[in-house]
Amino acid sequence: MNWILFGIIFGGAIVISAISARNTKELPDVSERMYRILFFILLCVFSFLLFYKVGEIPIPYHVDEAGMVYDARSLAAYGTDRWGYHFPVYLINYGGGQSALYMYLAAAAIKLFGYSVTAVRLPAIFFSLLSAAVFAVLVRKEYGNTGSLIALGVFCFLPFSVMHSRWGLDAYLLFPMLIFSCTSLYSAVKTDRNRLFVLSGCLFGVTLYSYAVSYILVPVFLGPVLLFLLLNRRIRAGQLAGLILPILLLALPLILLLAVNNGLIGEIRTPYFSVPKLFAYRGSEFSIGNILQNLKFGERNIFYNIFVWDSLRYNVIPRFGSLFYFTIPLIILGLVLCVGKSIRNIRSGEFSPDLMICFLFLISFPADLVSGCRFEFCFYQKQSHGGSFLRHLAVPDSELYRVLFQRIFP
Questions:
Q1: By residue range, what is the domain housing residue 264?
Q2: What gap in Å lies between CA 97 and CA 91, rounded to an integer?
Q3: Which of 216, 43, 249 is nearest to 130 (CA)?
């Protein structure tokens, strides 16, 4: 699945929507009172789309979601995952591993509200709503009230935004965590506040626990961003330390995880945290050999996955696509303008959200090309490539969109 690229290209769509004119002044700005009213209405509509029968649709659980729920219930009741590890930094799940952040959030929700499918999916809804609001505020700082409302409207109604908010899956937290992290970094640079650099470092550190691909994404993204800030004297030595140290401290358990699973040290078990040895280490899923496969024509093609749909048919139905087909020209044009503005930012030394989106895209696209994670086992109309066991554990395809969209477009 291409959730990172979806997030980056989706960001490009928002940028072109918010800057349909290059000069912000060409966008007629709505009043403060009207902005607050429309902002509240859009969030209410988005909340309805996310909460509507979330305990029933999609039903019942994604296979990885089910494994995470098992661990979350075990942790809430006994303080261990289902394999007996106390507060693991990474889950074994079915053997190949799973990032732990969502499991801890789900365990907290189960503790507070009791077990139910709705409780398990509450963290996804909360993070999506919060990320929509944070992103709208970020766009407002750069493009004003009108640009912010356009961005929020795009965010709330794309199929991708709704779908990724209704599953209790670890990978889907990467999208909102990147929004929080990048927004805090942007605010830190613009306001020159030391505590915001520390907050940004903490958020980037927590992002590492949302999805394993962030182990590559976060450091490779921060490298050129920090180099840009240093060259243009937008960050001081103390602020740089305040940003980097929290990331390193939070990354330390994951560094131990990599050491354990590469055979450098034995697994770690303590009453306070654990670093498990996985049954099957999935580092080989990233390989240069996957590039040609991902560029081949067909449903595994990377561009097909981004703009149309991917091989997991429960993610979206062909009638609507992942991002709505009418947004494809908008997305491409948005990326072109985003790259153009980023080049001007580099020349002028100005730090902007466009520059961060551009850096993320330039990093994520090559990373996705070498990824071998587009599995074929959840097809309902084809023979499974991944074995009948996994195929029968897959979730019924796209019931969510049949309910939420086909009633609107009969």
A1: 3-404
A2: 5
A3: 43
Whether residue 409 lies inside any domain: the answer is no
Q: How many CB atoms lie within 10 A of CB 212?
A: 23
Reduced 3-state DSSP string for 87-149: CECEECCCCCCEECHHHHHHHHHHHHHCCCHHHHHHHHHHHHHHHHHHHHHHHHHHHHHHHHH
* Cα distance between residue 66 and residue 46, in whole Å: 25
Q: Is residue 410 part of a domain?
A: no
Work out the average pLDDT over 126-132. Answer: 94
In a domain, 158, yes or no: yes
Distance CA 202, CA 181 (A): 8
DSSP, residue by residue, 327-351: GHHHHHHHHHHHHHHHHHHHHHT--
Return d(Cα 183, Cα 203) in angstroms, integer. 10
Angstrom distance (rounded) from CA 207 to CA 99? 10
Residue whose C-alpha is closest to residue 158's, from 41, 314, 325? 325
* Contacts with 111 (C-beta within 8 Å, 6 or more apart), sequence order: 76
Nearest one of 101, 165, 104 to 129, comparing CA atoms: 165
Q: Is 275 helix (H, G, I), strand (E, B) or coil?
A: strand
236 contact partners, CB below 8 Å, separation of at least 6: none
The mean pLDDT value of the chain amounts to 80
Asked if residue 60 has a cis previous peptide bond (ω within 30° of 0), the answer is: yes
Per the document, the length of the chain is 410
pLDDT digits (tens, 9 = 90+) for 37-76: 999 999 999 999 999 988 888 877 888 899 999 999 999 9
Give how many domains the chain has, as a whole number. Answer: 1
Residue 249 resides in a domain? yes
The 10s digit of each residue's pLDDT in 156-167 is 888 888 888 888
Instruction: With beta carbons less than 8 A apart as the criterion, state whether 132 and 43 touch.
Output: yes
**Nearest Cα residue to 9 out of 400, 391, 372, 339:** 339
Q: What pLDDT is stored for residue 405 in this prediction?
A: 37
Helices H / strands E in the chain, number of each: 16, 4
Where does residue 79 fall: left (phi above 0), alpha (psi -120 to 50 degrees), or beta otherwise?
left
Q: What is the DSSP string of 283-339?
A: GGGB-TTHHHHHHSSSTT-HHHHHHT--S-TTS--TTTTTT-GGGHHHHHHHHHHHH
Q: Could you tell me which residues are beta bridge partners of residue 268?
A: 275
Helix, strand, coil distribution of the chain in percent, nearest 5: 65, 5, 35
